[in-house]
Specification:
two-stranded antiparallel ribbon; rod-shaped; 127 residues; mainly beta; 35% strand
């Protein structure tokens, strides 16, 4: 019987990467030319690394500016769409709180530096 469809799973590929795929046929007499390439991108995955060079600067007795850089491009595994900043006071305000920084410009990997102001903090507290 004639084979109507053949498939093969390509494994061990990098996350969120473009691949050009070509196929050729082989029989007892030799090989054909490769097909024109088709381009397929692999799926996104969770980032492999953390944001880099995190700094915090007090803006006032009740606010702090947090600035950082995205994970290295090779470790992003897709467009970063948001960041989650966690903060806890040492002396007062000891409950852990979170704030989200949404990235509206999703041109990959356009974001080079991110900053967020934490406000409403307890005066003279270490965070």
């Amino acid at each position: 019987p004639a084979v109507t469809e053949v498939s093969s799973d390509l494994t061990g590929l990098q996350e969120y990467n473009n691949y050009t795929i070509s196929v050729r046929a082989i029989n007892g007499e030799g090989v054909s030319a490769f097909t024109a390439g088709v381009i397929q991108i692999t799926d996104e995955a969770a980032p492999n690394d953390t944001p880099q060079n995190v700094t915090a600067v007090a803006l006032s007795p009740t606010s702090i500016r947090v600035t950082f850089y995205p994970p290295p491009e090779i470790d992003q595994n897709g467009p970063i769409t948001s960041y989650n900043i966690s903060y806890t006071g040492e002396l007062f305000d000891t409950d852990t709180r979170f704030t989200f920084v949404n990235i509206t410009n999703r041109i990959y990997p356009a974001v080079t530096e991110v900053s967020s102001d934490l406000t409403g903090l307890q005066e003279y507290n270490n965070y």
